[in-house]
TrEMBL record, chains A, B:
It comes from the Bacteria. This is Class II glutamine amidotransferase. The lineage of its organism: Bacteria, Pseudomonadati, Pseudomonadota, Betaproteobacteria, Neisseriales. Keywords: Glutamine amidotransferase. PROSITE patterns: GATASE_TYPE_2 (PS51278). The keyword Ligase does not apply. Residues 2-283 form the Glutamine amidotransferase type-2 domain.
Length: 283, 283
């Protein structure tokens, strides 16, 4: 299974600490060795880095570590390809413009029989189910709204579209327009909101710790979202099965989930991921 | 004035030699020190690197040197900002999807009173005249053709749109869909086609030379396009004033120019660029 990493905060923050743990899962501490991609919003612009090398050993990932780009919204994806070739057009995250804003999307999972009609406004360039799903969401939003609707309307519509797509299979996603960060779980997705008083965190995948109090101000609020928790000594919240949450400035501002909420165990989630992989689909 | 660099070839080729000379103009041998961007097509995908640091000293540019990405179509841009802030949303090249293909665009020059109506399909994210021109071209193509038209029709339509836009001012551009490379000159744009028998080339901006015979096969054909010639010992062809050329696999396949062709001297071109800069516009 591929893995997702996201960050949403109220002040430009570098993601190096979380990314260091995350990238090691691409070929070193785990087997997601078929490339990676990361998108950083800076204002309305997006800085996008893709590489088809494993993230653990990629020179592009090394650059991200040394460059320490600060961003309020980041989406990263490491890939374990089980179908199709490893090529750039199929590498997440994907980017499109809608209503004069860039939208960024990454997915893990597998959608069966998901072949919506060719869009009037958005078409996939590669051949993944993921890019089809992203284009479908944007197409439906643009068909319905010539101009960006009120935020509550936007969130409700995205929730409806996500429900429609997940009927086709596993649909763990991260999507952002540089302001809002949407996260939806079919299986595993966790998040943590770090705010004052900041403490120390210890990476699960590497012998690294950080004292956030030394690198933040008391007003900072930083949400990190990842397929699996990245640190050992913090309490990560799990997103429920079929729950969509939306964050802004590091806090959850919208949630849509079936009641009662159900949470998948990590073992079960990984087992499903492996069986999806064995069935030949993870994009 | 900003500077442009493009490459179009019949086999994936690394642009490191040309890029090394070009990037030094971003802050070292010339004063284009307000960031740069470069887009590499790989198949249908695009690898895009932007940086708001001067290209001569950018760690992203260092990565491009060491990584030696091979591509059949490359567009790079270094910026001398004279209006507006230096931010990511305003950094060339710009990318959009049209007919299921990524299109990449970079511009130098200055368009006056160019404010087309808001597009149905494409809208700018930043606030440069350049991105407005790119979105206008794509919008008009998409409005006219739901599906990609025959190539000759496409080229003629792009030639018409370029004529319409250049009535507003200086419009030196590079644009590619990963197959065709369009180049239009209002002032200065030069190109060279390298093919067998390959010789040695010496960079104008650095003490570097290369023996292309050692790094190519006899079938390779590589066109390099740049605002100003990059080498001292090769014969670069100048694109005429108001000429649009289109290249594929390293050779010119279409040209549209007023007769008789007029060629601007480098001194005159640089003088115009400086006066445009002084008037406060170069995006």
């Amino acid at each position: 299974m591929c893995q997702l990493l996201g960050m949403n905060c109220n002040t430009p923050t570098d993601i190096v600490f979380s990314f260091e743990g995350f990238r090691l899962r691409g070929g070193l501490t785990d087997s997601h060795a078929d490339g990676f991609g990361i998108a950083f919003f800076e204002g309305k612009g997006v800085r996008l880095y893709h590489d088809d090398k494993p993230s653990a050993s990629s020179p592009v990932a090394d650059l991200i570590k040394t460059y320490q780009i600060k961003s309020e919204n980041v989406i990263a994806h490491i890939r374990k390809a089980t179908q199709g070739e490893v090529n750039l057009a199929n590498t997440h995250p994907f980017v499109r413009e809608l209503w004069g804003e860039y939208w960024v999307f990454a997915h893990n999972g597998n959608l069966r029989d998901f072949h919506p009609a060719i869009g009037e406004f958005y078409r996939p360039v590669g051949n993944t189910d993921s890019e089809r799903a992203f284009c479908f969401i944007l197409e439906q939003l643009r068909q319905r709204f010539t101009e960006k609707p009120a935020e509550s309307v936007l969130m409700q519509h995205i929730a409806c579209l996500v429900k429609e797509i997940r009927a086709h299979g596993l649909f763990n996603l991260l999507m952002s327009n540089g302001d809002l960060m949407f996260a939806h779980a079919s299986t595993l997705l966790h998040y943590i909101v770090r705010k004052a008083p900041f403490g120390e965190a210890v990476l699960l995948d590497d012998d690294i710790n950080i004292d956030f109090a030394a690198v933040t101000t008391p007003n900072d609020r930083v949400a990190v979202i990842a397929t699996l928790p990245l640190t050992t000594n913090e309490c990560w919240q799990q997103i429920a099965v079929n729950e969509l949450v939306c964050l802004r400035e590091g806090e959850v501002v919208f949630s849509d989930a079936p009641e009662p909420k159900q949470f998948m165990s990590i073992d079960e989630g990984l087992c499903i991921a492996r069986s999806v992989g064995a069935a030949g689909a993870c994009d």
